[in-house]
TrEMBL record:
Protein name as catalogued: Uncharacterized protein
Sequence intervals crossing the membrane: 47-68, 88-108, 129-152, 179-200
Keywords, sorted A to Z: Membrane, Transmembrane, Transmembrane helix
Record organism: Cannabis sativa
Source organism phylogeny: Eukaryota, Viridiplantae, Streptophyta, Embryophyta, Tracheophyta
Superkingdom: Eukaryota
Length: 211
């Protein structure tokens, strides 16, 4: 992908800086908004944390959709190449939105977990333990993404053969866009399941109560 801005060449490390900045700013912005909500409304921090988890999952879905569309666009550019080592006439800054959505997901989810497991009046040891446990689950989910890649590869091979696998040695032959759509669908299913649990259990009344 083209990393030029005029006559300047931009190093890809700028995306890491963009991610870090977005995560910090969006996380802090969310925290400021939630603080005002806590003060003005008769709701608990747990309820605000629940809302934040929903918002973070929405950002996760948007991230997957953005990534899928960017990769689809990249593959369309690849099909127009006349020489294998030609530079794709597509700016790498098409990746900016998905990095922003990913950073927003991480920033808001971290703040939401803090709110959900933090008792402002009388913090207990169980609150801290549950927060650490939740972070462990999130970390396990990120690690298990490798397993999901393996499963997606095997399923795509079973359906269309080895040549139809979504993951090839050459990224230009891979179909990462389809994998991103699978991630978006799984996250959407998780969001629906989360809301079903929230509205169909006594947990809804519990988290809306004041701390």
């Amino acid at each position: 992908m083209d990393n030029s801005v005029g006559h300047l060449k931009v190093h890809p490390v700028v995306f890491q800086l963009w991610y870090d900045l977005s995560e910090e700013l969006i996380g802090e912005l969310y925290w400021k908004i939630m603080q005002k909500l806590l003060k003005r409304n008769n709701v608990s921090s747990k309820y605000v944390g629940c809302v934040g988890l929903v918002v973070s999952m929405i950002f996760s879905i948007l991230c997957c959709i953005a990534a899928a569309n960017v990769d689809r666009r990249r593959l369309n550019k690849v099909s127009d190449l006349t020489v294998d080592d030609d530079l794709i006439s597509m700016s790498m800054f098409w990746l900016v939105p998905q990095y922003f959505f990913l950073a927003s997901f991480d920033g808001i989810s971290d703040k939401s977990i803090d709110l959900f497991f933090k008792n402002h009046e009388d913090p207990t040891s169980s609150d801290r333990i549950m927060r650490v446990f939740c972070l462990l689950i999130v970390g396990f989910g990120k690690i298990s993404s490798n397993l999901l890649v393996f499963v997606a590869q095997k399923v795509s091979e079973m359906v269309g053969g080895t040549r139809s696998s979504w993951f090839q040695e050459d990224i230009n032959q891979s179909r990462l866009d389809k994998y991103y759509w699978v991630l978006a669908a799984l996250t959407l299913a998780n969001l629906v399941y989360y809301n079903i649990l929230y509205y169909c259990t006594s947990f809804r009344a519990e988290v809306r109560a004041l701390d």
